[in-house]
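Dear colleagues,

As part of the handover before I leave the project, I'm documenting each prediction I ran so the next person doesn't have to rerun anything. This entry is a single chain, and its sequence is reproduced below.
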Amino acid sequence: MTASPDAPLPRFRRPAPDDAIDVARELLDEGERVDVQGVARRLGVSRATLHRWFGTREALLGALFERMAIEFRRAAEAGARGRGDARAFDYVRRMAESSAAYGPLRAAATREPDVVLRLVLAEGGPVHRQFADGFRTLLAASREPRELRRLAQAID
């Protein structure tokens, strides 16, 4: 018996790394500790699969925080007011406020300050990269290339 061409496709698919990040976000938002075992259990995969995808718990958290930083960056860029430097600094304020106001992130930082702060503040890390790229983008709108290089070095 063959399936009708109008029959819906199955809704099930194999979990992927992005799904693990989604589950990690759910755990974080629920106030739970994000760990490999909990993510694997909710996703229906083995811990070995998560380790193959991310390597370590910190790498999984780094991917989660990078995704959150992208969300915060988009909102901060869209909401930044003013022109030139004023807009760039409003962006910085909005990034700081949104991350500080996000309760689940604050709770995680309270539970595990060394891990969360290291990942969020790490120079060259995924969160820093998102923040710095957004700041550079806004500064570029009002700066000469030579001055931008000097500012970029200060940020990095």
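The two ends are 62 Å apart (CA to CA). The chain has a mean pLDDT of 86.

All the best with the project,
I.
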